């Protein structure tokens, strides 16, 4: 299990054992199932958060109703009738509604954010493996090899000459830029939510107290709830061997008592809560760090040619524009620099680019970013999102009602891997889903350039 859920579950278990004793221990699977389902949702499972939480409160009502009416026998059909009164009678007060809003928003934002990290990483990895076109290879060979043919082995290519070559070679990649920037903006918005109102720590830290408050509301409303249920579902049969029937046992109030935040136990439960706070403080620092990296990665694809051509091992530099290889001789490079993107390469003087044939693989990555951006926008608004995961190692897909056909396209099947689990070391987990740095992709191109130089020599 993830560390934060494990600690929150342990805290709830410790506190409830101390507060409610055997009454809790005999019904603990209801609470354990809650954490299991939350974990399954977060890791990409096919879980509808709203339905899952409604089911939890319905099951808790059934168990509580039996506890406050021990002198009656309730069949499965009768208990199913009882659960239908959850929304009508509000036996737990306003706690279920508030908790549902907080849990769904926080978990949707967290899962979508981690999925976004995975998508960004995978798009960058896939695009970095796209092979250069024959026209690009010829242009690179001319830029790097011809100086040796002309007896100018120490003369490096002009900076602007390099830019036109790289803009031609990376024309399809530059077309990622618009959708990539929108994707980064959406990631930053969700990160802001995780730091603020959708912070999971603020939901999971006091979840034991909130559920305990709901149980006490049920106790206070027990007579009213019992009366209404008996009226709606019928008078149940007395339990075998009992002559009298009372709604609430004499020892109920002594076994179930209110639990206030200031009474948090200082033993195992208190320790686990402290660990939980430490984990989420670390997570908050990780989110802040990632936000800075996200900001730096904007315009990543359109700036690649400039980053590559700034490398001293590739070009002569801007200060040597009169003393560099311009593709023909040692002199200034005169042609204008092309704009970014495929359509702008129609008149590229250095690279033969067919602008009528966009790279299909890169177009798929543009669509992947577009789909992920729409999911992030939904998560920002607190709406559930649908991850359709068909990879073999994945655990499934999440479902919800937050997407409409015009917001979350259904014609595109996005393939991704399971969301990374939140571990105790938040920095390590987030580092595994980091974004492309200029250095990583730049050195891929630089290595290609240097390899061609060695072959030319």
UniProtKB/TrEMBL annotation:
One of its GO terms (biological process) is regulation of protein localization to membrane. It is a lipid-anchor; GPI-anchor. Belongs to the glypican family. Cell surface proteoglycan. It comes from Anolis carolinensis. It is found in: Cell membrane. GO terms for cellular component: cell surface; plasma membrane; side of membrane; synapse. This is Glypican 6. Keywords: Cell membrane, Glycoprotein, GPI-anchor, Heparan sulfate, Lipoprotein, Membrane, Proteoglycan, Signal.
